């Protein structure tokens, strides 16, 4: 038998939203490859290319750890969708050296860039954000723009589920660009239904032919289990009340009326004496 690969099962609402949003961000990343490469070429010399390394669902705590030591930029759409773009690795030092007119340094992803390198990377980072703006317009109807609002990152860290797509550098440049988004910003929101006041008479007419169970309680009896075991043919038990006592009438377990037992055309019947109003309604 062949090996079966496990599939993650989304059992709660947040997970279902994240699973639905993941391919959307992955599709956006496929478009971003072209525009980001074009935008970074003037800032990052050498022979290199970007490839989509995959998209995963993580939580906000993991995002917080992954943001450390990277260049961070935020984007916000007119429909309140938000993206966080993070650059890591050698691409930061290479772009910084290019800006200073120096030769590109030999770096690895394990090296943490200095505060100066992060600052010098700013023009390259801005070009990356601008590339995201143009690609977003190809997929979504809303408009995306860079934002300095720190709340974008804070909301991402507090989120239960986050979609992360990674773009990996290969060739003469090392490093990666990661894009984070909350699922609700990527999934189309359902349009609100118009509220229409219900017509009480039409509702009453529609419900008038619905069958309901009516229970007339002629009597109840409580007994011990050992008494129940001793039941035999001919056993008699006295019920509470008299033959002509009023009996309750229930509908759906709710008291609706009081009635009196009668005989009608030779069969047992009940005659309604009073109606109970307000039973079964919420205050």
Description:
The protein is of the alpha+beta class and 283 residues long. The chain has eight helices and ten strands. The protein has helices at residues 13-40, 60-66, 90-100, 115-120, 122-139, 151-158, 200-207, 225-229; strands spanning 48-58, 71-77, 82-88, 144-147, 162-171, 176-181, 214-216, 247-251, 254-264, 267-275. Strands 1-5-6-3-2-4 form a six-stranded antiparallel sheet, sandwiched between helices. The protein has a four-stranded antiparallel sheet with strand order 7-8-9-10, with no helix packed on it. Helix 1 (13-40) packs across helix 5 (122-139). The longest helix is centred in the N-terminal third of the chain and has 28 residues, at 13-40. It is elongated, with a radius of gyration of 36 Å.
Descriptive tags:
283 residues; alpha+beta; six-stranded antiparallel β-sheet; four-stranded antiparallel β-sheet; 26% strand
Short description:
With 283 residues, this protein is of the alpha+beta class.
Q: What proportion of the residues is helical, as a percent range?
A: 25-40%
Count of DSSP strands: 10
Mean pLDDT across the residues is 85
Radius of gyration: 36 Å
Regions with little confidence, pLDDT below 50 for 5+ residues: none
How do the strands and helices of this protein lay out in sequence?
Blueprint: H1 13-40, E1 48-58, H2 60-66, E2 71-77, E3 82-88, H3 90-100, H4 115-120, H5 122-139, E4 144-147, H6 151-158, E5 162-171, E6 176-181, H7 200-207, E7 214-216, H8 225-229, E8 247-251, E9 254-264, E10 267-275
Antiparallel strand pairs: 1-5, 2-3, 2-4, 3-6, 5-6, 7-8, 8-9, 9-10
Helix pairs in contact: 1-5
């Amino acid at each position: 038998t062949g090996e079966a690969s496990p599939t993650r099962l989304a059992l709660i609402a947040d997970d279902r939203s994240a699973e639905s949003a993941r391919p959307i961000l992955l599709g956006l990343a496929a478009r971003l490859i072209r525009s980001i490469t074009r935008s970074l070429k003037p800032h990052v010399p050498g022979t290199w290319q970007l490839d989509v390394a995959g998209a995963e669902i993580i939580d906000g705590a993991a995002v917080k750890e992954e943001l450390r030591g990277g260049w961070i930029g935020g984007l916000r759409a007119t429909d309140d969708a938000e993206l966080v773009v993070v650059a890591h690795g050698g691409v930061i030092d290479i772009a910084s050296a290019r800006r200073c007119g120096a030769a590109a340094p030999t770096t690895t992803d394990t090296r943490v860039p200095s505060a100066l390198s992060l600052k010098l990377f700013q023009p390259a980072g801005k070009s990356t954000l601008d590339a995201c703006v143009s690609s977003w317009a190809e997929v979504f109807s809303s408009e995306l723009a860079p934002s300095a609002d720190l709340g974008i990152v804070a909301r991402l860290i507090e989120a239960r589920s986050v979609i992360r797509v990674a773009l990996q550098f290969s060739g003469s440049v090392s490093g990666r660009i990661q894009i984070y988004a909350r699922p609700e910003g990527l999934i189309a929101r359902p349009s609100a239904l118009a509220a229409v006041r219900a017509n009480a008479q039409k509702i009453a007419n529609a419900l008038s032919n619905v069958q309901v169970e009516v229970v007339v309680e002629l009597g109840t009896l409580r007994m011990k289990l050992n008494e129940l075991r001793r039941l035999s043919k001919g056993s008699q038990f006295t019920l509470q009340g008299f033959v002509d006592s009023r009996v309750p009438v229930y509908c759906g377990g709710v008291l609706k009326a009081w009635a009196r037992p009668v005989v009608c055309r030779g069969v047992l019947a009940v005659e309604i004496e009073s109606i109970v109003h307000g039973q079964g309604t919420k205050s």
